[in-house]
Amino acid sequence: MKKFLIFNFVILLLIGLILVTTSSSRIQDFHDYHLAIAQESTASTKQAISQFISEKKRLVQIFGNDHEDVIKQLAADPANEELYAQLESRIKIYFPDYFAFTIADAQGKPFMEDFDGLIGELCQNDLRKFTQTQMQLPRIHPHPDIYHFDVISRHEFDAKTILLFISFDADELGNMLENVQNPGHELMLIYPEASQLIEVTDKGARVNLNRNDYRLTQQEKARILVTTPIDKTRWSIIDMHRPELFSRYENNIRHTLFLIFSMFLIISAFMLVVIRRQEQLRIAAENYKNDFLSIISHELRTPLTSIRGSLQLLQNDVVDINTDKGREMLDISVNNCERLGLLINDLLDLQKMEAGKMEYVIQPVELLPLLNRCITSSRIYAARFDCSVEFDDSNIDPQLTVMADAYRITQVMDNLLSNAIKYGAEQDTIEVSVTNTGTHVRINITDHGEGISEEFHDRLFEKFSQADATDTRSSTGTGLGLNIVKNIIASHQGTVSFTSQAGVGTTFWFEIPLA
User: Fold this and answer.
1) Which of 35, 38, 58 has its CA nearest to residue 232?
2) 474 — pLDDT class (breaks 50, 70, 90)
């Protein structure tokens, strides 16, 4: 056996070395391939955007030359709204995608007041810088309406310098990126001088991104494959891979690498899992048996002791059966016999549910009479604990009908009401209310006891689950009631849950569909 394990280990080691070498080579080839794609896409995008900006500048220059008369008149009479409208209509014809325009003097000061706030401070800075350097390096300007970039042309009319300024929607650049962008890659225009500020992506201007900080993060910088400056602009075009591009490919390679190991070890691993699973089942069954025996022994021993004590008193003539004390002994015996009967019924119901043999007769049932019957019967039990049960039926339609098995819903109510009575406060008032959600009806049972400890919340609906499962616990019960409730409500296509607050109380509720 030892030699066999050594032989398999050596073979596995050799295969692993071959796979590691091969996979490393394939990963490097994959990286090189996508680097070449990034270089090609940034080069072509750089050329396209450069041509696009140059063409915009050329067209704006031509437009200014062709409309010299209107521009000169408007410069001489900036308040003339008719001239302004005339120039605006012509710009709309030439540039349907324009955002704003103005004309300025040689110092970059606009002739017209911008009451609409379209020509912002950055736009005016571009005008002033253009007058100083005679160069325009476009960048994206933020605006509440449209993020845009500017194109400026210089015109000499009658020895007078006039600047024509037109802004365009930055989403045009986003469309260009979207058309060039390769699967698994992200193309972006960034402004390197402003801390790697994102200007445009395939979604358009940066405002379209769902993020608070538009600067590249360290993670994004690490994903950059190629960065290429774009001539005569302030932008650089970057191509970065998507986070999952290389990781997904590398994971596939790793999965292939480990597949052979998995195939070789699968039988031993499977046997280990089976043995471990069997051990877990054995432990769970052992715990289940211990819990079952602990609870059942308590639930059997207590009523049997009481019955035996009562009968012995009667049998030995210590108490006369015809006296009040004798009838009290008989009542104690009968009540404990009923308690044993309920225990047996719970166990039988649980067995039927687990075997899928529980039968339900689900049909339209009037809710109000059903709840009144349940509450009336619970008040006898509540009196033993010096409690009361109040039912708020003021907002219930007397004809409200649900789809339910009346007997099983009664069983649910009995369980929840008895729990509320047992675990409520001294002289508590148990509150029952109903809410109509439109498709379902919700029944709420509220007590004002100590509440359910938080560490017990997750186990509350499990079989034989009790916060105190010791033989000395004060309250009786098998721990099956809530598990049975959960199964019954689930069979009605409903839901059951609870809310609890320490020292305030607990509300159990369940929903069943309306007829």
Assistant:
1) 58
2) very low
Name the band, by pLDDT with cuts 50, 70 and 90, for residue 301: low
Q: Report whether 400 contacts 410 (CB < 8 A).
A: no
Element (H, E) at 37: helix 2-66
Q: Which amino acid is located at 474 in the chain?
A: S
Fold observed for domain 268-350? Helix Hairpins (1.10.287)
> Between vectors from CA 146 to CA 143 and to CA 147, what angle results, nearest 5°?
70
Record: fold of 359-513: Heat Shock Protein 90 (3.30.565)
Q: Average pLDDT for residues 377-383, to the nearest whole number? A: 82
pTM, 2 dp: 0.48
Please tell me the total number of residues recorded for the chain in this structure.
515
Tell me the CA distances in angstroms from 149 to 106, 123, 166, one per residue in order: 21, 9, 9
The answer to whether 179 and 118 have CB atoms below 8 angstroms apart is no
Please name the helix (run of DSSP H) or strand (run of DSSP E) that holds residue 391, with its range, or none.
strand 388-392
Q: What is the largest CA-CA distance in the chain?
A: 136
Output the DSSP codes for 451-472.
---GGGGGGTTSTT--S--STT
According to CATH, where is 1.10.287.130 located in the chain?
A: 268-350
Instruction: Give dist(CA 510, CA 432) in Å, integer.
Output: 12
Look at residue 167 and give its three-state secondary structure: strand
- Token pair of 61, please? 């220059």
Tell me if the domain spanning 32-241 has CATH number 2.40.110.10. Answer: no
Whole-number Å distance between alpha carbons of 440 and 466: 30
Which DSSP helix (H) or strand (E) runs through 449?
Answer: none
**CB-CB contact of 160 with 182 (8 Å):** no
Q: What is the pLDDT of residues 227-270, one digit of tens each?
A: 999 988 999 999 999 989 988 888 888 888 888 767 766 766 56
State the pLDDT at residue 237.
95
Q: Could you say which DSSP state residue 397 is in?
A: -
Residue type, 180: V
- Hunting for tokens 């607050």 — which residue is that? 501
Backbone angles phi, psi at 60, to 5 degrees: -65, -40
Residue among 436, 426, 416 nearest 508 (CA): 416
**H-assigned helices in 208-319:** 218-222, 243-315
Rounded-to-integer distance, Cα 325 and Cα 302, Å:
20
Six token digits for residue 296? 């059942």
CATH 3.30.565.10 domain range(s) in the chain = 359-513
Measured distance CA(447)–CA(417) in Å, rounded: 9
Q: Are 43 and 182 in contact (CB under 8 A)?
A: no
Whether the Cβ atoms of residue 427 and residue 387 lie closer than 8 Å to each other: yes
- Cα 22 from Cα 253, distance rounded (Å): 9
C-alpha distances (whole Å) from 271 to each of 108, 265, 266, 277, 285 are 83, 10, 8, 10, 21
For residue 141, the SS3 value is strand
